[in-house]
Design the sequence.
């Protein structure tokens, strides 16, 4: 089981991030004034690969989006793939968006 990392919403840089060792895995986002959040890019440094950090980052990001009652538009293929594997998360995807 991977360690439990703290999710940070870095509003200045428009990204969710973890701080893991010397790395900052992140999910970049754009928020609209209408309550939509577009997840545009996920990056997990190669040095952290294979530890489940990317999946944990996505899961915690989706939990935070749901907590804020935002509507998700997953533009990043990694996020879309995660939702495809965990279809329960479709509940927060903006209606009409195909994942």
Sequence:
């Amino acid at each position: 089981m991977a360690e439990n990392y703290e999710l940070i919403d870095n509003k200045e840089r428009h990204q969710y991030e973890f701080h893991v060792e010397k790395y900052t895995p992140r999910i970049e986002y754009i928020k609209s004034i209408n309550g939509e959040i577009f997840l545009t890019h996920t990056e997990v440094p190669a040095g952290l690969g294979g530890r489940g950090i990317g999946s944990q980052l996505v899961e915690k990001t989706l939990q935070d989006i749901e907590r804020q009652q935002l509507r998700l538009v997953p533009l990043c293929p990694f996020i879309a793939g995660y939702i495809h594997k965990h279809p329960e998360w479709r509940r927060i995807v903006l209606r009409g968006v195909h994942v």
Remarks:
- The chain has a mean pLDDT of 96.
- Residues 53-67 form the longest helix (15 residues).
